[in-house]
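Example protein as discussed:

>
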Amino acid sequence: MGTALRIDVGGAVVVLPWPGDDAGRRQVVRTAVGGPADAAVYRRRTRFHVHGKGQAERLAMNLPAWVLASVWRRMEIAYGFYGPVVVTGPQLGALDEAMAAEVRAVCAAVAEVREEWVTRQPAGERQARAELLAAARHRVAALA
């Protein structure tokens, strides 16, 4: 047993039940993302599992997952993630606690910035992305 996290499009982070066998884990991922899942690496110690047809099915963009992937890759990712995203360890392994803490920290930073935008709009899209990434990087650096 171990930990896997689902990042919802609104930024909520949900701990998923993580079975001991690969077949059970694949089923948890498929159910959590709402369909067939594609896996991607943005940090060696983790895997992102995203809906394989999320954009085509017009699922909402997952901004917190985009920020997390961009922070982990140390560059803005040029594409979005659509629908819920599951973060696991490599090869469907359990996510270690340090990586889980980073997931939670980035999602909290995104939520705080979005809350600020209710009363203070960003100057533009580029500035909004920069603000989100800076807040997330700061939050992750504070964990070290």
In short: The CA atoms of residues 135 and 143 lie 13 Å apart. Residues 97-116 form the longest helix (20 residues).
